[in-house]
Amino acid sequence: GGYFALTPPKIEREVSATGCGDALLGSLIFDISRGATLPDALPAAAARASASAADERTALWDEPLAQQLLKQWTAQF
């Protein structure tokens, strides 16, 4: 057992946080079902949840924005 903690990537402007948790969980399930480990899937899920907060739609995101956020975020480490 154990736990993981991370701070999600920052976005320019939050439009709506509604559905961000759903986006995070959906992303985790998707990536893990395709063979990713939890530590590998978490950063992408956090980036997708952040991208979801920048979108007016609920639990949806712009994947190119999510990938950009992920690259910027992981470059810090």
Explain briefly what this protein structure is.
It is built from 3 helices and no strands. It is globular.
What does this structure look like?
With 77 residues, this protein is mainly α. The chain has three helices and no strands. The protein has helices at 20-33, 38-53, 63-75. Helix 1 (20-33) runs antiparallel to helix 2 and helix 2 packs across helix 3.
Core attributes:
56% helix, 77 residues, mainly alpha, globular
List the helices and strands and how they pair.
Blueprint: H1 20-33, H2 38-53, H3 63-75
- Helix vs. strand class: mainly alpha
Query: What's the overall average pLDDT, rounded?
Result: 90
Largest sheet composition: none
N-C termini distance: 24 Å
Helicity level, as a percent range?
A: 55-70%
Report the uncertain regions: none
Strand fraction equals under 5%
Radius of gyration: 12 Å
User: Total strand count, please?
Assistant: 0
Order of helices and strands: HHH
Number of helices: 3
Question: What spatial form do the alpha-carbon principal axes imply?
Answer: globular
